[in-house]
Each structure stands twice: as structure tokens, then as C-alpha cells.
Amino acid sequence: MKKTALTAVLLGVFVHLPRLCFAQTESVPDSGVTAWMLTSTALVLLMIPGLALFYGGLVRTKNVLGTMMHSFAAMAIVGVLWAVCGYALSFGPNTLGGWIGWDPNLLFLNGLDDAVADGGIPEYVFAMFQGKFAIITPALIAGAFAERVKFKSYCLFIVLWVLLVYCPLCHWVWMEEGFLFNMGANGAIDFAGGTVVHISSGISALVIALYIGARRGYPRSAMHPNNLVLTLLGAGLLWVGWFGFNAGSSVSSGLDTARALTATQVAGASGALMWMIIEGLRHGKVTSLGLASGILAGLVVITPAAGVVKVPGAIMLGFIASVVSYFAIQLKTKFGYDDTLDVFGIHGVAGIVGAIGLTFFIRDEWMREAVAASPDGVWGVGQQLGVQLAATGITIVYAVVVTFIITLVIDKLCGFRVTERSEMSGLDQACHGEHGYGLLNLN
Questions:
Q1: CA nearest 311: which of 292, 352, 385, 319?
Q2: Where does residue 211 rank: exposed (0-12), middle (13-18), buried (19+ CB within 10 A)?
Q3: Is omega for the bond preceding 104 within 30 degrees of 0, making it cis?
């Protein structure tokens, strides 16, 4: 009996061993990484109501709801658009010469039920994580033309801009077949969205602000923020959400994640500190709005560099971004354009500083990988700087041209700007039939 039982066990092991070994090689989700990416996805989504609070507190009382609606409308519109075709256009194989991606199997996220993406996470999670980036980017742009655009025109703009600007840039930079991904020895470095999110949104915001013109009465009439408490709360939520934005972009749960998270924290703090120093030296007072602006400048500048630079580099980038953004905002007064909530001055400018400036603080191991990948085994700061400049320039030119065309088309079809009467009464009442605080004072 004992020999018979032993023979049966050995035979069972022999029969099932190939199946067991094969099962171990199948692509299965890593529960630890998946848990972190689920958390990161939620953190990035948290940034959208954070942005709504940040922007909503900066406008006048009569426009607070209309401004916050820009962020929440993006959640609705892009949330559906991304699932229907945005993900397919961004992360599908090259089509139209590599201008865009395309895979009909990814429409409506079909084919992802059993798919596991690189990094060991269900591809559903990766698709939803990337979808949050697609939501917040056009919502950022809305800050440049707050208080003066039609809601229906804004909604149409979101659809066209995501399809024609965001998705192609996303494909070029983050898809393995993308030409910016493959530029140079190690590709154009954009760890979490310096070019795809911040430069594209900042430059597009400037184009629209210049096209539709300033708010009526700007800059002669004072247009004070209605509630800086909301703005500070929004800045805090954005800082918290940014850990998912940057650290989640490692698509892992390890050293790269820790590096990105640390760099994000340090850069946000250094950006805030430098803005406080500048205001203290120039005006003798530190404002809450200045502090919030410094936080954003530091977080924006580190976005393309998170996981690529060490702590000293993150600190320096935060300092530099605050200085450059602070003085870039002063250009509004000099040139007379009305970037209402400083989208270009902070997101566009700090994004450019980060995309280019990271070159001088890259980790040694990152450069060693670039040297190893170079055909002649030679690669240095100069070569990588050239790649970063090229990627930044391409992003700027593409965003300017396509955004201008989109804006022109929408303006001719249905008008982009509200009437003078609607603007004077406020977008809350004119566009939504509501008042943010239930008050009759519309100043």
C-alpha cells in the first residue's frame, strides 16, 4: 500500500508539474503594485476637486460655481471620452505615421478584462490611472479664460483638445512606439507629464487667453479673489494628490516610487519657501496666494523630473521654478494679456523649466543607461539637453498651432466668449442659473 500511494503521488507531481511551472510564468497581477496604483489613481482624481477649489477661490463671487464647473465637467466629459476612444488613441500601436495610436480592440476598453500591463497591474488600472491625467489637463487650461467663456463652448473645446492635442502628445512621449519616447539614446525624459500635461496646458491656455481677450474692466478694475481659504485648501489637496501623480507614474512599488515621492515632497516645499522669500524681500509680507503659487510651481517643475533627479536637484528645481514663475506672472501687467489664474505663468513656465532643467541634475545611473543605449557608447548632458529642448519645442509648436485652430473653429461655430451682459452678471447665473453662496451680492 505504501509503495502504491508513493507511486501515485510521484505520478501526480510528474503529470501536473509542467502545468504548475507554466502557471508561474503567466502574466498575473502583482497585488502590491496593484494596490499602490489603485491608490495613486484615486489620489490623481482627488486633484480635480482640489483644482476646482483652488480656481474657485481665486475668481469673483459671481463666477465661483462657473469656474468650479469647468473642473467637474472635465471629469464627466473626459471620463467617458477616454474610455470610448482616448485610451485607444494614446496607447494603441502607431497609425497615421505615428501621429496617433489606434487599436479598435481598445475602443470602450474592450479586450482589457484579462489584460495585465507592464509592471504587473491589471490594464484596467493603468487605463484609469492615465485617464485621470487626461481629465486634469484641459481642466488646468480653463483657469486662463475663467469668468468669460460659454460653458457649451468649453465643453466642445475639451472634446476636441483632448482628441487632437492631448492624445497625440501622450502617444509620442509615453508609448514605446512614440517618436519622442525613442528620441536620442534614452528618449525624451518626461517622468509624469511635464510636456504632456503642464507645457501643453500652459501654452494652450496662453493661446486662448490672447485670442478671446481680457475680462471687461481688466486691468483697470480690481478683481480680487472671493475666498482664499478655498484656494489654500485646494492647494493642499493638489499637493496630496501629486504624490499619486508623480510617484504613481513609476508604475511600480519600489525604489523608483520612493524616489519620485521624495522628490515631489521636497520640490513642492522648496518652491513654496522660495516664493515666501521673494515676497518677503520685495513686499515685506508673505501672502497666502503667493505661498499657494509657490507650492504649485515646485510641484509642476518636478513632474517631468520625479524619479530622475536626487534631492539636491529637486530642491534647486523648486527654487528656480518659483523665481522664474514669479517674474513670468509680472509679464501680464507689462504686455496686458489676461491669463486669469496664471496657468501659463505657473504651469507653462515651470513645466518648461522642469523639462529642460532636469538635464543638469539627472542621476548618474540614468546617464549610464543612456550611455549603454547609445550606438557609439557616448552620451552626456549636452546630448540629453538637445533632446529635452527638441521635445519641449515640438510640444510648444504643436500645442500653439492645434489649439489656435480649435479655438478659431469653435468661435466661428458657436462663439467662445459670453456676451457683455452675461459677463457682467456673472457665469454662475448666466450659464448655470445659480449662485455659489446663495447671496445677491454679485461683486
A1: 319
A2: middle
A3: no
Q: What whole-number distance in Å separates Cα of residue 134 and Cα of residue 116?
A: 21
CA distances from 12 to 3, 26, 145 (A): 14, 22, 70
- Identify whether the C-beta of residue 125 lies closer than 8 Å to the C-beta of residue 34: yes
Listed in sequence order, the residues at least 6 apart from 222 whose beta carbon sits closer than 8 Å to its beta carbon are none
Question: Which domains does the chain possess?
Answer: 31-420 (1.10.3430.10)
Q: Is 70 helix (H, G, I), strand (E, B) or coil?
A: helix
Cβ–Cβ under 8 Å, residues 347 and 205:
yes
Please tell me whether residue 203 adopts helix, strand or coil conformation: helix
What is the value of pTM for the model shown? 0.92
Interhelix angle 288-302/311-329, rounded to 10 degrees, is 130
Residue bearing cell 486662463: 144
Residue 186 CA from chain centroid, whole number: 22
Alpha carbon distances (Å) from 143 to 47, 94, 146, 187 = 15, 33, 5, 31
Tens of pLDDT, residues 125-174: 999 999 999 999 999 999 999 999 999 999 999 999 999 999 999 999 99
DSSP, collapsed to helix, strand or coil, labels residue 100 as strand
Grid coordinates in use for 156? 466642445
Please report the pLDDT score of residue 443 as a whole number: 53
How far apart (Å, rounded) are the C-alpha atoms in residues 185 and 192?
19
Q: How far apart are CA 227 and CA 59, in angstroms?
A: 8
- Give yes or no for a contact between 64 and 437, defined as CB atoms under 8 angstroms apart: yes
